[in-house]
Design brief:
The protein has 139 residues and is mainly beta. The protein contains 1 helix and 10 strands; from the N terminus they run βββαβββββββ.
Length: 139
Amino acid sequence: MDEMPQLNTGRCLCGEVRYQVAGRLPDFEVCHCPQCQQAQGGACVVVAPISASMFKMLTGAEMLRVYRASPAKERVFCSRCGSPLFSRRDEHPDRLRLRVGTLDDVRNTRVASHAYVESKVDWFEIGDAAPRHPGPRPA
């Protein structure tokens, strides 16, 4: 008997943008760089690196806007509520870095690594044993 593929759903804060991700979510990556701190308004960003082919917009595609803080990377967000949804680098158009906080339900995953821990804010403590990288996570 074939198993049904896992479907994960998510949305922005106002609910205008809804999406689904087909397949098992990978373990998460946490970035502590200053740009992610500013973009998320917090100590870090938690992302699930997924194949773009796994991602499907359900509603609200017309609400999406793109911002480029750096020339080779787009950050995609809802134009109504401002929720960051994912980012994508020009050199890897087939990969999305999905913002985990926009998922409706997250199970059976863990943090795989922390990047840019040299930029971590002093008031945030890393409480897991995942590998820590001073700069970007090695490819």
